[in-house]
UniProtKB/TrEMBL annotation:
The keyword Phosphoprotein does not apply. Keywords: Lyase. Belongs to the DapA family. Signal peptide: none annotated. It comes from the Bacteria. This is Dihydrodipicolinate synthase family protein.
């Protein structure tokens, strides 16, 4: 695989990395019509990289068949209009099968979800990602790091073994730790994506991130794109104006240990008539009395 292709993939990560929701129909199945419409809205709104099967897409609440469906539908709807970064995870054979499926359909990259296991050793973390990366050498691989214990040196080790590990979604809520981790791992070796969305983007950009993930982008693509434009131009006051605009929405998502992270996004979409508010356990829909505030915020962003 030529380095030119990876350069294209690296460039794609330095952007608003949208994490689309997975809308559900009244019978609880994936609502493919609403899903296509939401994806089209993102693409028409200027989004250029999509992550099907991310956490805002309720990755862990989907069946294996549904995860494949979401990947297929996203790649089909996007066509050549966006770069696709497919979320994969669970046990190693499942993650590899998902990554190969993504590759067959024409995805350019996979994002590897944080290993879900009560006992994660740092060397074992490297082994997990290496097994997946080596199975799909043609794809760019992006580890999703939520483990504050992981050292930057371990990521450097993974990058040395696997040239296709090209970016990192860093989601430890500590800007100083991020700055140190990125430098220990190799600031220029990887593309750094602020994995905690708009609230953390300004501080993480100042430390070396060049992209950020977003669930809010499902609701108001222009708001997220305004923030990245400000950050790219180094206009932190303008970025913080957007930050102030999205602060309350993101506080609602982060409350109670992020219990309503997806719920609030779907509630906002429901208030705009774009999909049902349904989420799957262990998430839950918002109580009636909290819905009006979300609707009010979404209405204020309406484009």
């Amino acid at each position: 695989m030529s380095s030119v292709t990876f350069e294209t993939q690296r460039a794609a990560l330095a952007d608003v990395v949208a994490i689309p929701v997975t809308p559900f129909a009244e019978d609880g199945s994936v609502d493919t019509v609403a899903h296509r419409a939401l994806l089209r809205r993102l693409l028409d709104g200027g989004v250029r990289i999509l992550t099907p099967n991310g956490n805002t897409g309720e990755f862990y609440a989907l069946t294996p068949e549904e995860r494949r469906l979401v990947t297929e539908l996203t790649i089909d709807e996007a066509g050549a209009g966006a770069v696709i970064l497919v979320g994969v995870g669970h046990d190693v054979p499942t993650a590899i099968a998902s990554a190969r499926h993504a590759r067959e359909l024409g995805a350019q990259m996979v994002m590897v979800h944080q290993p879900v296991h009560p006992y994660v050793s740092q060397a074992g973390w490297v082994d997990y990602h290496r097994a997946i990366a080596e199975a799909v050498p043609e794809l760019g691989v992006v580890p999703y790091i939520r483990n504050a214990q992981l050292s930057g040196a371990r990521l450097a080790q993974l990058g040395e073994a696997c040239p296709n590990v090209i970016g990192v979604k860093y989601a430890v809520p500590d800007a100083a730790r991020f700055a140190a981790f990125a430098r220990d791992a190799g600031l220029d070796r990887f593309v750094w994506v602020a994995g905690l969305a708009e609230p953390y983007a300004p501080s993480y950009f100042s430390a070396g991130a060049t992209g950020f993930t977003s669930g809010l982008v499902n609701v108001a693509p222009s708001v997220s794109l305004n923030m990245i434009e400000a950050l790219r131009s180094g206009d932190y006051p303008a970025a913080m104006k957007v930050w102030e605009q999205i602060r309350r929405f993101e506080e609602l998502r982060a409350a109670h240990g992020s219990a309503n992270n997806v719920t609030v996004v779907k509630e906002a979409l429901a208030s705009l008539g774009l999909c049902r508010r349904d989420v799957r356990p262990p998430s839950r829909t918002l109580p009636e009395d909290e819905r009006a505030e979300v609707a009010s915020i979404a209405a204020g962003w309406s484009i």
